[in-house]
Design a protein that fits this description.
The chain has ten helices and six strands. It is α+β, with helices and mostly antiparallel strands. It has a six-stranded antiparallel beta sheet with strand order 1-6-2-3-4-5.
């Protein structure tokens, strides 16, 4: 007959433990729920992080600009060398043709010598190394063979140089791709942070940027500052015409600019060629370490690694392309860590 025992009831101690654990779990969940909203960064915290990412993006942009400039320079150098090689090969062919015609004429008269036959059937370098045969040639033939030998050396050197530069170009293109990816990654991360804000918070930040980015027709009090030179004034005047143009990394105008793109474009309008990157522009003229000695049109370098450059506008103001999300505008020189000025 089956046993009908009552199931064993849990002990009072076990019930107490389970009840306590359940209560603790509920309390933790409630704390987590209450803590969640406070973990979301504030608008100001997000802005600080975004500004930092934009600064890092600008640092990467100047490295990108340097790699791009190097690529363009290498492409021009390679093109020049290849043109020289092509012309040199034509000259070499003409020299060979001329001495071949001379040999043919000698052959027809039966006067061709063994040394010339040797040249026509082997490398002229080997031929000229045999000093014993040199005196068997006419002075004209010796001169022609020397020219051929020299031209062959030149072509070999130029081909080797082109080969080295092509390898350098390939590595530069790889570096350029990495720098571009770095910039885009920083900008994407900044955009992700901005997207985490509410519509109202994003609108507030956009309004603040709009107030900072002065329109192209607006001017600030620049005082009576004088320009460093006529060319500096011309560069500054050119930069003023670009007020309100958007910042785009790697851009050199005239639809958009980055910081060094604006300064190099402005000086180009004054007939002066300066380097492309801010770090290179830092060495383009005489350095001025006192803000009080700056004059209109001087370059102004900021940050310890010199990744940002502007044009001095007078009265403690600069004109520059600040960063992604802004436009070319005036700004106080004290809004960024000043390093020194450069007078072109």
């Amino acid at each position: 007959m089956a046993s009908h025992r009552r199931p064993k009831q849990p002990s009072r101690a076990r019930v107490t433990v389970l009840t306590t654990a359940a209560a603790a779990a509920v309390a933790i969940s409630a704390q987590a729920a209450n803590a969640a909203p406070s973990e979301k960064p504030s608008k100001d915290e997000v802005k600080a992080k975004v500004d930092k990412l934009y600064e890092e993006a600008e640092q990467a942009t100047e490295k990108f600009n340097g790699a791009k400039e190097k690529q363009e320079k290498l492409q021009k150098e390679i093109s020049t060398i290849q043109d020289n090689v092509a012309r040199g090969q034509e000259e070499l062919n003409e020299l060979r043709d001329s001495i071949g015609l001379a040999a043919a004429a000698q052959y027809r008269t039966g006067s061709i010598d063994s040394s010339l036959q040797l040249f026509l059937s082997s490398n002229p370098n080997d031929y000229l190394d045999k000093a014993s045969t040199a005196d068997q040639l006419s002075a004209q033939q010796v001169e022609a063979l020397k020219k051929i030998q020299e031209k062959q050396r030149e072509l070999a050197q130029e081909r080797a140089e082109a080969s080295d530069k092509l390898k350098d170009l390939a590595s530069t293109r790889t570096e350029l791709g990495k720098k571009k990816k770095d910039v885009q990654g920083k900008l994407a991360e900044a955009q992700k942070l901005l997207n985490s804000l509410t519509a109202a918070e994003r609108a507030a930040l956009a309004a603040a940027d709009a107030r900072a980015s002065r329109s192209a027709s607006e001017r600030v009090d620049l005082g009576n500052a004088t320009a460093a030179s006529g060319r500096a004034q011309a560069a500054f005047n050119a930069a003023q015409t670009q007020l309100g143009k958007p910042y785009v990394y790697g851009a050199t105008g005239t639809a958009s600019y980055d910081c060094s793109g604006l300064t190099s474009w402005a000086y180009a309008q004054a007939g002066v060629s300066i380097p492309r990157t801010s770090q290179a522009q830092a060495n383009a003229g005489t350095r001025i370490y006192s803000q009080s000695q700056l004059q209109v049109g001087d370059l102004v370098l900021f940050y310890g690694d010199l990744h940002h450059v502007a044009l001095y506008a007078g009265n403690g103001q600069v004109i520059h392309a600040p960063r992604t999300g802004t436009t070319v505008r005036y700004e106080s020189i004290n809004n960024m860590p000043f390093q020194f000025g450069v007078r072109i």
